[in-house]
Amino acid sequence: MKTLLNKIISNLGYILIICGMLIADKVTTHAKWVNIIKDNSWRIIFVLIVIVVSELIIKYIKDNK
Predict the structure, then answer these.
(1) Model confidence over 14-37: pLDDT tens digits?
(2) How many CB atoms lie within 10 A of CB 36?
(3) What is the average pLDDT across 50-64?
(4) What is the C-alpha separation between 24 and 40, in angstroms, rounded?
(5) Alpha carbons 24 and 56: distance in angstroms, whole number
(6) Separation between Cα atoms, residue 29 and residue 45, nearest integer Å
(7) Mean pLDDT over all residues of the chain?
(8) pTM, rounded to two decimals
(9) Under a CB-based contact definition with an 8 Å cutoff, are residues 50 and 14 in contact?
(10) Measured in whole angstroms, how far is the alpha carbon of residue 53 from the centre of its chain?
(11) pLDDT at position 1
(12) How far is CA 37 from CA 14, 19, 43, in A?
């Protein structure tokens, strides 16, 4: 449970980026949440890929010190 909470806290920046992106789209288009998520799904997937890659880079750097 503690490691899950640590992961959420460490990735809070990415979570805020995704939420901010979705809320901004909601405010500008006044569309339903389902349509906004469908339209931005590729952006969400891109941010998730960035999260995974950045974690791997950080882990690699820490292991090679």
Answers:
(1) 888 888 988 999 999 988 989 988
(2) 19
(3) 86
(4) 11
(5) 30
(6) 21
(7) 85
(8) 0.66
(9) yes
(10) 12
(11) 61
(12) 16, 11, 9
